[in-house]
Amino acid sequence: MLFNSLEFLIYFPIVTLLYFLIPHKVRYLWLLGASYYFYMCWNPQYALLMAASTFFTWLGGAVISATSRPAARKAAVWLNFTVNLLILFFFKYFWFTVDNINAVLTFFNSSPISPKFDVVLPVGISFYTFQALGYTVDVYRGDVKHEKNLLRYALFVSFFPQLVAGPIERSKNLIHQLYEKHRFDYDRAASGLLLMLWGFFQKLVIADRAALLVDNVYSNVGSYFGFHFAAATILFAFQIYCDFASYTAIARGAARVMGFELMENFHAPYLSKSIGEFWSRWHISLSGWFRDYLYIPLGGNRRGKLRKYFNTLLVFLASGLWHGASWNYVIWGFLHGVYRILEDSSKNLRSKISRLFNVNRSKPYYPVFQITLTFIVVCLSWIFFRAENIWDAGFILRKIFLDFRPYLLFGGGLVEMGLSAADLGLLFAAIAVLIFADILKYRNIGANSVILNMNIIMRFALILALLFATLVFGIYGAGYTASQFIYFQF
Q1: Cα 84 to Cα 60: distance, rounded to the nearest angstrom
Q2: Who's near 94: CB < 8 A, 6+ residues apart?
């Protein structure tokens, strides 16, 4: 079931209404059933896979909690990780592995292998697997107690707002909320619904409109020049941001209406002044997961600079592979790892250059320069993320650097890419609204609270304007199939 579907607009009010009507002690069972129904709308049989992962990690937590023997506790953690990652590997990386084996066999003039069965990637498997494994480590470290109620733990893993595309919640943040008695609160519900509305605006007005242009250009790489690819890549940066952030906004808003508070997953990432800051603001739940459950256990920055840089590169490679079974994603992760290492290792050199040329870092232009440079290098890496394959990515980069043709900006080049002049103008206006909202967020000014604290006339005028923009300018309706969120495939 998609958030941007008619089914969800019927499903969510029913689930929420009954949640507040039924007795508190059985509400978690209602949410558990509703969450499994939500997931089974895609493919019912894969709910069994999620249930198996849930039971195995819950059992692992029980073993860890029941014994004080370090060897047994470590064995339970390793067994949990091994089993769950093998399941993830099979469903997500089986064909990737087969394709690479066949490439090697072909190189040596051997017959390729051809499995007689098909493997379909279950929706959201990377998200719920990482959430369940995080619980296992949290119990091992003593950050949370083992959840003795299997069904309540199953709700933690499958909670429908964030089940399919995050945020990847921490057990210490969400499990205790499953015990709290939530009463309907008007202000909280209004805040949640406004957050959901903002998510729909990001998805329907910005992400899905930008997708029409981006998909057209990236699917016809032989028909465009460097200027077109640069423009399409910048718009893809906003497309993927709004697509993913919209899911998180709708998820957080839906949870808030029912009384649950999920973690923030994006915090104005394109206003970052460095790659390090970018990753503290982009997909925060995944970045934090890799930091706490991979980077720090590997030694973090405690074993010298070389080991620190090795750990950094390994984490970013793992992040790239997590995003998809393709060398494109591995290269994307590798690039960000290299960016981060170069950024960290060049601190002293950059300071010396600034002093040599008398660069005044306190001037307003300097942070603007930092933000622009960070955005550019992030966009260059997005090319590998979006391109159909690494050969297309290489072709696009060559076009950008060797055949740019900037005069196309003044010769109608933008309207040759898949959107009319009116749609382009609307898209740019919507992106301007997004940037304004992110500037407020970057300064820790919550647009949501600002709107809700306005007088009633201004408040309803702004909410109606946002609703009007979403309904009138959103990409949906007759002849349109609700667009799947990009991160569903991860």
Answers
A1: 11
A2: 115, 119
Cα distance between residue 267 and residue 67, in whole Å:
40
Q: Measure the CA angle with vertex 211, ends 208 and 217; round to 5°.
A: 165
| Contact indicator for 170, 134 with CB cutoff of 8 Å | yes
Task: Read off the tokens for 69.
Answer: 């023997």
Cα gap 85→87, rounded to integer Å: 5
Domain ranges across the chain = 6-183, 188-489
Residues 148 and 65: their CA atoms lie apart, in Å, by 10
CA atoms within 13 A on the CB side of 63: 19
Question: Hey, what are 347's tokens?
Answer: 């601190």
Q: Is 323 a catalytic residue?
A: yes
Q: Please tell me which residue in 146, 228, 283, 323 is annotated as part of the active site.
A: 323
| Cα dist from 56 to 33, 59, 60, 169, 407, whole Å | 19, 5, 6, 18, 60
Locus of tokens 């008695």: 181
pLDDT in tens, 356-371: 888 877 788 888 999 9
Map residue 45 onto helix, strand or coil. Answer: coil
Tens-place pLDDT, residues 144-186: 999 999 999 999 999 999 988 879 999 999 999 999 999 999 8
